[in-house]
Each structure stands twice: as C-alpha cells, then as structure tokens.
Specification:
With 217 residues, this protein is an alpha+beta fold. Helix content is 49%, strand content 12%. The protein contains 9 helices and 4 strands, in the order ααααβββαααβαα. The chain has a 4-stranded antiparallel sheet with strand order 1-2-3-4. β2 and β3 form a beta hairpin. α5 packs across α9. The longest helix is centred in the first third of the chain and has 23 residues.
C-alpha cells in the first residue's frame, strides 16, 4: 500500500473540498481506495490467523465512506480528512478501528456511546465482575499502549440502579468504553506498520472480548 500517495491525496482533497474537484480526480481516488481495500484484505487474513474468534471482515465491508453525512452535520466539509476502516466487525459488537488521517492517525476499539440497552449490559457486566475489567485496564502492557479509557462525557451522578459507594463507580459513569493508540504518520509509513497493528490488536483483544461478552448479556 502506498500510504504516501494516500496522504498526498487527502492533503489535496482538503485544499479542494468540493464535489467538482472530487469528480475531476475520481479515478485517482478510486485507485487509492482499491489499493487500501486490498491492503485491508491482507490485514484481515493476517489477524484471522492470530484470533480464533475473529469475525472475517473483507476490506470492502470494513472501509468507511469518505463522504461526510451532511444531512446530520450540514456544517462539515463535503469529504472527510481521513480514511477509516473497521475489522472484526461482528454484528452488535465492538470492532477494531483503523484511522488514517491528516490531523491524526490511530488504532481504536470498544463502544462509542452505545445505545442504552448495550450500555446497561456493559454496566451490569462491570457490576458483576468489574475486578476483571479493572485488571485488564491496569495491566502494564495495556497501559503502555492505551493509557486510560478514551476520555468522553461521563455522568455526574451514579447511573440508575447504582450507588456512589459502588467500588467501580468511576467506570460505571462512563458513556463510552473505548481505548485509542495514537500513531504518527511515520508509524504508518514504516515497513513494519502491519506488525504494529497486530501488536496493538492482540493487546486490545481481552478488553474488547470483555465488552462484547458483557454487551451480549
């Protein structure tokens, strides 16, 4: 995958963020997108060999649209400043997300503001065996790659059905349960980028499995 060409395209796109410009450069965009899909196919196969429970996700299924949703976000540019893709995309579960953008590159996974039913299931899981979840979050190798949970809005008061004395009340107040590993552009351009991704994937796996099990309850 020629990531230099991918970043160069994104830079020009953001300087000319119009449908007219995109239409004039559609062949170039299509070529980069096809190459990225093939790269994702290869990554999908590689990770599947490492995780017996992996949900096969071809690149064409995992890659996100580059168009912003202007119906819900009319003030956004027509096109995004990044390519994004999810792997291990089993239905109603937390996938493994790859973000390659101009302003930020990262690997992430978990649940971003899940619907109330899923959020309640995750909180019930933490209530039942929050010590296991805490052990995953505080494992030194995990903290080295991800730090803490992704910082998002939290409840001020305990969620319904829980008291402020709950031993894991700080976790229960979260609305988002996700972690992020930041990347530099140099990481993406490094020939060992795929090895970096698999390292992060495997370290994140117990975290995602815990959440998926809780969400399925």
């Amino acid at each position: 995958m020629n990531f230099e060409a991918l970043f160069a395209f994104l830079e020009e796109l953001q300087q000319n963020n119009t449908k007219e410009w995109m239409d004039a450069h559609r062949k170039r965009y299509t070529s980069i997108r096809k190459e990225l899909i093939l790269w994702l196919d290869d990554l999908d196969y590689t990770i599947a060999q490492l995780d017996d429970a992996y949900y096969p996700t071809p690149g064409k299924k995992g890659i996100n649209r580059i168009n912003n949703n202007l119906m819900f976000h009319p003030n956004k540019p027509v096109y995004k400043d990044h390519f994004g893709a999810g792997l291990d995309k089993a239905p109603n579960s937390a996938d493994f997300y790859i973000h390659l953008g101009l302003n930020e590159c990262f690997l992430a996974g978990g649940f971003w503001r899940p619907e109330p039913k899923v959020l309640r299931s995750i909180r019930d899981g933490i209530d039942y065996n929050g010590d296991d979840f805490k052990a995953i979050l505080t494992k030194p190798s995990f903290e080295k790659l991800f730090g803490e949970l992704y910082e998002d809005e939290k409840l001020t008061n305990p969620p319904k059905g829980f008291t402020k004395e709950h031993p894991h009340i700080d976790l229960l107040k979260n609305k988002t349960f996700a972690v992020v590993h930041e990347l530099d552009r140099e990481d993406v351009l490094d020939p060992r980028f795929k090895e970096k991704i698999t390292e992060v994937y495997l370290e994140m796996l117990p975290f995602r499995r815990y959440l998926n099990e809780a969400a399925s309850l």
